[in-house]
C-alpha cells in the first residue's frame, strides 16, 4: 500500500535511522524505528489507524540502511499519536510470517483499553513529557521496608472502595492515605506489563463463560503499562497515552507520601505460548533467541504456560536489561520482584547455569544500582533456590520457608520449633553473610490461601476455576480451627481471629523484610480458593465494607507496624549473635522457655521464647509463642538493669500503642492462653515518687 494516496500520511518521507535506538523513539522531525531480526531477509513498518487498527501504509526498511541484523529508519513528519504501528518481516522458517508484529520495545500497546474485551493489539508511541514536580524516591533502606502486595484492579474494583476511578492506577492513588495510615512504606504491584486478560482456556463450570487471566502473569509487552488499568483517556478519548501518564502519577504520588514502588515482573514466559499460541512479537522476530526449545524443536515448557524465555541468550539479556533500565528511569520504579526467577538461571538447554550472566548483569548494572531486586526463588519445573539464589551481593528472596514455618508451628505440627526460631531471626541458615534483609518474609501472598482462609480451610476449594479442583497448592500448612469454611461457632471464630493476629505479630517482629498481602489486615477471604488467578469478581476484589473484626485487625496491624518502626532491634542489618558479651549482659539473641534459659527444642515443643537485645540502642524485646492447646505460664528473664517489662501485645487480648505499653509488673509471670503470642518490651523504670513532706518542711526548704 502506497503512502502517496493516503492523508494525512501522504507527506511522510524516510531518512536514515539510528540502530542504537531500539523501538520507536521521537527524534527531531519524526520518529526513529529500529527492530532486530536475524532470520528476516526484509522488513516493513506497518502504520495503523489509531481508532480502527486498519492498515494505513507499509514502509519498507531500506536495505541500504540495515545495520547488521537491525532494520532501522527515521520517518520524517510522523508524530506520536498520529498513527499506531507494527512490523512485518519475511524470511525462511519465520513463524507466523506476514503477521503484523508488536514492537518488543513498544512503550505503549493500544487495542486493549477495554478490560475483558478481546484486544486488537498495536504498538504506539506515548508522549514523553511528564512533570515529576521535583518529587524523588524515598530511598529507603532495605531493613526498613514494609511491603504491601496488591493487584491494581482488585484493590479498588469493589463497589465499597469509595474511589472515583475503581480498578485503576488512579484508584490505587486515591487509597494512598489508607496506606499511610496503615504504616506500610512499599507497594508491590502485581503485573502491570501489558497482558491479555481474555487469554484463559478454562470456563466457569456454573455458567460456561470463559474465565479471565485476572492476575496478568502472561505478558504481551515488557515495556508497556497495562492499558486496561487506566481510568483517564486522552483528549480524543482513545487512552492513547493514558496508562503511561496515569501510572507515572501513581508512582509520583506514592513517592510524595514516602512509599516506594516495586513491580512484579514476568520475564520467564510470554503470552505467545507454545506452537498453538498467537505470534505476537518475539516469536516472529527471533524464535530461538527468545525461547527455549528441546532437541525435537518443541518449546520447553518449564513454566507450565507453554513456553520458556531463553533468558541468558545475549539478545534476550539485552532486552531484559533495557526493559529494567526503562522502568527504573522513565517510571522511577524502586525495585522489581522477579516471578519464577530460577528460569532466569537456565541456559539454552534448560539446565541451570552456575553463574547465569543475566543475573550478574542485573546485579552489577549501574543504572539499577539502587533498585531492590527480589527473586521468587522457585519455578514450575521444581527448581528450588531458596537460600541459594545467585545473589551477587544484591538479590533478596521471597522466603516461602518463613511462611510454612510460621503456619506449621502455629497449627501445632511437631518438629517445627527449630525452623521457626531460625526464621524469626532473619534465617541465618539460608542467608548467612547476606543479612536479614535478604529474606522477604510473608505469611500469605496472592498465590495461596489468604491469611483468613489459612485459619478456615484444611483444603483448597477451587471448583470455580474450571480445572476440576486440581489446580493450586495442595499443602497450605493450614488448619480450619475445627470447622471447614464459614461457621457461626463463636469459639471457632475467636480462634481464627487469634491465629491471624499470631501470624501477623510474628511476621512484623521477625528479622527480615515483612510483606503483607492486601486485605489480610481486614480479614479478607477468597472462600477457600487458593489459586484465584481467574476470578475477576468479589472473590478476588478487596471488600472495603466496614466490619468490627476488620477494624480490630487493622488496628492491630497499625500497632504492630508502629512498634516495628520504634524498635531498631527488629530491623537489624546483620543476623544477631547468641554469644554473651565479654562485659556481661544479654547477647543479641537468647532462647528461653517456661523458665529463663531453658528452651524446649523437642519435636513436641509448642513453646518458643526469644529475647532480642541491642545494647547500643538500649533496645530489648521479648517474644513468646504458645502453639499449645492449653495455657502456659512463662517466667520472663529479668529485663536489663534499670528497666521493667511492659506488655506491647497479647493476641488473646489486645495490642497497645508503641511507647504506651502498660507495665507487666515486677516478678509477674506471663500467662499465655492457648494459641497465643505475646510481646514484651523493656522500658526504663519509672522514677520512685517523691516522699510526701509536711507543709512546714516545704516552706523551710523554699519549695
Automatic annotation (TrEMBL):
Q: Does the keyword Hydrolase apply?
A: yes
- Region named Disordered: 460-488, 684-703
Documented EC number(s): 3.2.1.-
Recall the GO molecular function terms of this protein's record: isoamylase activity
Would you say which domain of life the source belongs to?
Answer: Bacteria
One Gene Ontology biological process: carbohydrate metabolic process
Whether Cytoplasm counts among this entry's keywords is: no
Instruction: Note the CDD domains from the entry.
Output: AmyAc_Glg_debranch
Which protein is depicted?
Glycogen operon protein
According to the entry, every stretch annotated as the Glycosyl hydrolase family 13 catalytic domain falls at: 149-564
Amino acid at each position: 500500500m502506497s503512502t502517496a494516496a493516503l492523508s494525512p500520511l501522504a507527506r511522510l518521507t524516510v531518512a536514515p535511522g539510528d540502530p542504537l535506538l531500539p523501538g520507536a523513539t521521537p527524534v527531531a522531525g519524526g520518529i526513529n524505528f529500529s527492530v532486530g531480526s536475524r532470520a528476516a531477509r526484509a522488513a516493513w513498518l506497518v502504520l495503523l489507524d489509531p481508532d480502527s487498527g486498519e492498515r494505513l501504509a507499509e514502509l519498507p526498511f531500506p536495505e541500504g540502511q540495515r545495520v547488521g541484523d537491525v532494520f532501522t529508519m527515521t520517518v520524517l513528519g510522523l508524530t506520536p499519536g498520529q498513527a499506531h504501528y507494527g512490523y512485518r518481516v519475511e524470511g525462511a522458517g519465520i513463524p507466523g510470517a506476514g503477521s503484523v508484529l508488536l514492537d518488543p520495545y513498544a512503550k505503549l500497546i493500544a487495542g486493549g483499553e477495554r478490560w475483558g474485551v478481546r484486544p486488537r493489539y498495536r504498538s504506539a508511541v506515548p508522549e514523553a513529557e511528564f512533570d515529576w514536580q521535583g518529587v524523588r524516591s524515598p530511598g529507603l533502606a532495605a531493613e526498613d521496608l514494609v511491603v504491601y502486595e496488591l493487584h491494581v484492579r482488585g484493590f479498588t474494583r469493589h463497589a465499597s472502595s469509595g474511589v472515583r476511578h475503581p480498578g485503576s492506577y488512579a484508584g490505587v492513588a486515591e487509597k494512598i492515605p489508607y496506606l499511610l495510615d496503615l504504616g506500610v512504606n512499599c507497594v508491590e504491584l502485581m503485573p502491570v506489563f501489558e497482558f491479555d486478560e481474555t487469554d484463559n482456556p478454562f470456563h466457569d463450570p456454573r455458567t460456561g463463560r470463559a474465565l479471565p487471566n485476572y492476575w496478568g502473569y502472561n505478558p504481551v509487552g515488557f515495556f508497556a503499562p497495562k492499558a486496561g488499568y487506566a481510568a483517564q483517556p486522552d483528549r480524543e478519548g482513545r487512552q492513547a497515552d493514558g496508562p503511561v501518564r496515569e501510572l507515572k502519577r501513581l508512582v509520583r504520588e506514592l513517592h510524595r507520601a514516602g512509599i516506594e514502588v516495586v513491580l512484579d515482573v514476568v520475564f520467564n514466559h510470554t503470552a505467545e505460548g507454545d506452537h498453538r499460541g498467537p505470534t505476537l512479537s518475539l516469536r516472529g522476530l527471533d524464535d530461538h533467541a527468545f525461547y527455549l526449545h528441546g532437541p525435537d524443536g518443541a518449546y520447553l515448557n518449564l513454566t507450565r504456560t507453554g513456553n520458556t524465555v531463553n533468558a541468558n541468550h545475549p539478545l534476550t539479556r539485552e532486552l531484559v536489561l533495557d526493559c529494567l533500565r526503562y522502568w527504573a528511569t522513565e517510571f522511577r520504579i524502586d525495585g522489581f520482584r522477579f516471578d519464577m526467577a530460577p528460569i532466569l538461571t537456565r541456559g539454552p538447554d534448560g539446565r541451570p547455569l552456575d553463574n547465569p550472566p543475566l543475573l550478574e548483569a542485573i546485579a552489577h548494572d549501574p543504572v539499577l544500582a539502587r533498585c531492590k531486586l527480589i527473586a521468587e526463588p522457585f519455578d514450575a519445573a521444581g527448581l528450588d533456590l531458596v537460600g541459594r539464589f545467585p545473589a551477587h551481593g544484591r538479590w533478596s528472596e521471597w522466603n516461602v520457608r518463613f511462611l510454612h514455618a510460621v503456619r506449621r508451628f502455629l497449627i501445632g505440627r511437631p518438629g517445627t520449633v527449630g525452623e521457626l526460631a531460625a526464621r524469626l531471626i532473619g534465617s541465618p541458615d539460608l542467608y548467612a553473610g547476606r543479612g536479614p534483609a535478604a529474606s522477604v518474609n510473608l505469611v500469605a501472598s496472592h498465590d495461596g490461601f489468604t491469611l483468613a482462609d489459612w485459619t478456615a480451610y484444611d483444603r483448597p476449594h477451587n471448583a470455580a476455576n474450571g480445572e476440576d479442583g486440581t489446580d493450586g497448592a495442595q499443602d497450605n500448612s493450614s488448619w480450619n480451627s475445627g470447622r471447614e469454611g464459614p461457621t457461626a461457632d463463636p469459639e471457632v471464630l475467636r480462634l481464627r481471629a487469634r491465629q491471624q493476629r499470631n501470624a501477623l505479630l510474628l511476621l512484623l517482629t521477625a528479622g527480615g523484610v515483612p510483606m503483607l498481602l492486601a486485605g489480610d489486615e481486614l480479614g479478607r477471604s477468597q472462600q477457600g480458593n487458593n489459586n484465584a488467578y481467574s476470578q475477576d469478581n468479589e472473590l478476588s476484589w478487596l471488600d472495603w465494607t466496614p466490619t468490627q473484626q476488620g477494624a480490630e485487625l487493622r488496628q492491630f496491624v497499625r500497632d504492630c507496624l508502629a512498634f516495628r518502626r520504634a524498635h531498631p532491634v527488629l530491623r537489624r542489618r546483620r543476623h544477631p549473635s547468641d554469644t554473651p558479651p565479654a562485659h556481661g549482659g544479654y547477647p543479641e539473641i537468647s532462647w528461653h522457655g517456661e523458665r529463663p534459659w531453658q528452651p524446649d527444642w523437642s519435636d513436641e515443643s509448642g513453646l518458643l521464647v526469644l529475647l532480642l537485645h541491642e545494647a547500643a540502642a538500649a533496645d530489648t524485646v521479648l517474644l513468646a509463642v504458645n502453639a499449645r492447646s492449653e495455657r502456659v505460664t512463662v517466667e520472663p528473664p529479668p529485663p536489663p538493669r534499670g528497666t521493667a517489662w511492659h506488655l506491647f501485645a497479647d493476641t488473646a487480648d489486645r495490642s497497645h500503642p508503641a511507647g504506651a505499653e502498660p507495665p507487666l509488673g515486677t516478678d509477674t509471670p506471663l500467662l499465655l492462653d492457648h494459641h497465643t503470642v505475646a510481646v514484651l518490651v523493656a522500658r526504663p523504670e519509672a522514677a520512685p515518687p517523691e516522699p510526701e513532706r509536711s507543709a512546714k518542711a516545704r516552706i523551710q526548704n523554699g519549695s
